[in-house]
Design goal:
Shape: elongated
Radius of gyration: 18 Å
Largest sheet: 4 strands, mixed
Distance between the termini: 47 Å
Strand order of the largest sheet: 2-1-3-4
Helix content: 25-40%
Structural class: alpha+beta
CATH architecture of one domain: 3-Layer(aba) Sandwich
Order of helices and strands: EHHEEEH
CATH topology of one domain: Glutaredoxin
């Protein structure tokens, strides 16, 4: 069941276990939070959010797969971190500094001014 939109051909697919053990541990709240984050970041066409019955990893926490990578969250905050690190970082990479002529600038090694590469 796709809850957050169809997602494009290259959509990130997030599948969250809703089996009894994961449900008791908060999978429903994680699905709700992921839906909100997807809406807030206008990612409905880039993320497909799904529920799945038991993923057979009950002892690991609330289980999920992001593009086939098995992951587990132990809290809502942990699930938010996973979304930020695995989904937002991929879909919304940090903007890179660009010079006036359109050339990418190297990142400063320790907070100093950027140098052209």
């Amino acid at each position: 069941m796709d809850q957050a939109g169809i997602g494009g051909e290259n959509a990130v697919v997030i599948t969250v276990c809703v089996g009894s053990s994961c449900h008791v541990r908060g999978s429903h709240e994680i699905l709700q939070r992921y839906s909100v984050i997807i809406a807030e970041h206008h990612l409905k066409d880039q993320v497909s959010l799904r529920g799945s019955f038991c993923m057979e990893r009950c002892a690991e926490g609330v289980n999920m797969d992001i593009d086939g990578e098995p992951l587990s969250a132990h809290s809502l905050a942990d699930a938010e971190r996973i979304f930020r690190d695995k989904v937002l970082a991929r879909l919304r990479p940090e903007p890179r500094a660009v010079s006036a002529d359109g050339q990418a600038l190297a990142r400063p090694p320790s907070g100093g001014p950027a140098a052209e590469s």
